[in-house]
Write a structure and sequence with these properties.
- The complex is a heterodimer of chains A (114) and B (114).
- With 114 residues, chain A is mostly beta strands.
- Helices cover 0% and strands 56% of the residues of chain A.
- Chain A has no helices and 11 strands.
- In chain A, the strands form 2 sheets. In chain A, strands 2, 4, 5, 9, 10 and 11 form a 6-stranded mixed β-sheet that branches. In chain A, strands 1-3-8-7-6 form a 5-stranded antiparallel β-sheet, with no helix packed on it.
- In chain A, a hairpin with a 6-residue loop joins strand 4 and strand 5.
- Chain B has 114 residues and is mainly beta.
- Chain B is built from no helices and 11 strands.
- Chain B is 0% helix and 50% strand.
- In chain B, strands 2, 4, 5, 6, 9, 10 and 11 form a 7-stranded mixed β-sheet that branches. A 4-stranded antiparallel β-sheet of chain B has the order 1-3-8-7, with no helix packed on it.
- The chains are: A mainly beta (114), B mainly beta (114).
- The interface between A and B is medium-sized, with 29 and 27 residues.
Chain lengths: 114, 114
């Protein structure tokens, strides 16, 4: 079983839709949670990060963490064609001998069509 | 401009011929890391370095070596490349190994081993 599970999609939505992206994880040592966006032929860029359970909002993006359920989400409101990309969740191990080790989900391909 | 620079961007080579992919960052970051990205598997961490004195294995270190002799450089070495190491490779850096510092990624090195 993978430590981080992410539905690869692909996900196709109309412009203006609300998008929900999700990851589950199994390692309790994961304490920092991030969402990256990756456009074709480019490296991932950080979108959001959270540490504690709850919600964090940044413009049209909201990151949600539920540590009790080992579940994180990214919501995109009023989605735009420019949001079309691969979205990757990522988690950092903050304990033990693997401190600092970063693990990614496999990424969800999102297409927002006009 | 703050950036992570990888070279080469593309390389086609043959089995067994030693190669090195260089990575350099100009942001005075402590943490550097290498990932490979494969379809359906997402980004997997190969090696990471919390600082010049500490280097640790990630999820898929077999067949790779790294070196962190100075803060800005973190080369990835394939002593005897094999076809299963054909992949897209990313180098990344962050101010520290904690999740509250964004990881800056290079634009990738596409490596083909024949």
């Amino acid at each position: 079983q993978k430590e981080v599970e992410q539905d690869p999609g692909p996900l196709s939505v109309p412009e203006g839709a609300i998008v929900s992206l999700n990851c589950t994880y199994s390692n309790s040592a994961f304490q920092y949670f991030m969402w990256y966006r990756q456009y074709s032929r480019k490296g991932p860029e950080l979108l959001m990060y959270t540490y504690s359970s709850g919600n964090k909002e940044d413009g049209r993006f909201t990151a949600q963490v539920d540590k009790s359920s080992k579940y994180i989400s990214l919501f995109i409101r009023d989605s735009q064609p420019s949001d079309s990309a691969t979205y990757l969740c990522a988690m950092i191990n903050a304990g033990g001998t693997s401190y600092g080790k970063l693990t990614f989900g496999q990424g969800t391909i999102l297409t927002v069509h006009p | 401009e703050a950036q992570v620079t990888q070279n080469p961007r593309y390389l086609i080579t043959v089995t067994g011929k030693k190669l090195t992919v260089t990575c350099s960052q100009n942001m005075n970051h402590e943490y550097m890391s290498w990932y490979r990205q494969d379809p359906g598997l997402g980004l997997r961490q190969i090696y990471y370095s919390m600082n010049v004195e500490v280097t640790d294995k990630g999820d898929v270190p077999e067949g790779y070596k790294v070196s962190r002799k100075e803060k800005r450089n973190f080369p990835l070495i394939l002593e005897s490349p094999s076809p299963n190491q054909t992949s897209l490779y990313f180098c990344a850096s962050s101010l520290s190994g904690q999740g509250n510092q964004p990881q800056h990624f290079g634009d990738g090195t596409r490596l083909s081993i024949l």
